[in-house]
Hints:
Blueprint: E1 2-7, H1 21-44, E2 49-52, H2 64-76, E3 81-84, H3 95-104, E4 109-111, E5 118-121, E6 124-129, E7 154-160, H4 180-184, E8 188-192, E9 198-201, E10 204-206, E11 222-228, E12 236-241, E13 246-254, H5 260-267, H6 271-274, E14 277-288, H7 289-303, E15 308-319, H8 322-326, H9 333-345, H10 352-372
Parallel strand pairs: 1-2, 2-3, 3-4, 6-7, 7-8, 8-10, 13-14, 14-15
Antiparallel strand pairs: 1-11, 5-6, 9-10, 11-12
Helix pairs in contact: 2-3, 5-7, 7-10, 9-10
Amino acid sequence: xxxxxxxxxxxIGKRFGNLPEDLRGRLREARHGVLxxxxxxxxxxxxxxxxxxxxxxxTETPTPAMLRQALAEMGHHAPLxxxxxxxxxxxxxxxxxxxxxxxxxxxxxTLALRAEPLTVATGVVVLPAxxxxxxxxxxxxxxxxxxxxxxxxxxxxxAHGAIQDFSEDAAxxxxxxxxxxxxxxxxxxxxxxxxxQVTVNxxxxxxxxxxxxxxxxxxxxxxxxxxIAGSGSLPEITPVDTAAFAWRTMPLHLLGDEDSAMxxxxxxxxxxxRRQTLLRIAASGRTRLGGRTALVASAxxxxxxxxxxxxxxxxxxxxxxxxxxxxIDRAGALREAAQALLTESDDPARSAVxxxxxxxxxxxxxxxxxxxxx
Length: 374
């Protein structure tokens, strides 16, 4: 039985420029800290080998400190063995990166910089396909099909890239053949690039990132524990938790006169989890104008408990009756302004951004009116 940990897309050094500055440092540190969490999971599950399937670094030019500290952290976990593959973000084109890495790489870290077999244990060979550039223009795993190994050898492929092209050019030549494991006689093909876990077939998986960096996949950060009994045996694959932060999108569907603030409070995760959670609330359905202002106010209060908090009101419609606008003013300029904002917020001829601005302005006007109401 050979057991190893499959991970990818650590993106150490990612800047997170679209998030508040005080949060960026915490998220960057979590990406470095995932090395220790991967090592902990490897030891806890009885394996001494960790395969990193590309994009260990977020750019081709990590700072010298970032590079040295990441490799040093791997070195601290000897005798665990790390196999590090260049991905599209840290491809072989970054010759300064990999030349610098060669100078400081610990003995227990192997830089998989060439498409040639690597023996990682008795009877176990890794066939790496390092990314030559960000867009190589060919299937870099093709060489695995002709790579010779001794009979009875467990053959592990290690690659980074897409098995499906999402551009208009459906014949893109750098797409990895989804049946590469069968073509090359691989017992397992460990892939990186996609940040969510994906099962391609029984022998081919994307591990996903061990530390999520966006709301898109809405899954916990994990790595894959892979166990193979011998050459030709199907791998046993178990996800293991590795993330420090959770990125979650939670739907909040409202109906008319429902208490929106109470509905939001009931949805939120337990208080001890909030500081490590980046939360996006996707509100939908319908609510009265007062319910909308209550929702915004409740969201503002709750947001201080979370690492990051977003309220997406794009799909939430506002039911507004005359008595709602009467609370702003029964006549005059304020009433006319409120009516104009309401009309704009529901006008399909306007862009979504314009409707959102009008809706937010109307809610703000309503909240001011509530605040000064005698």
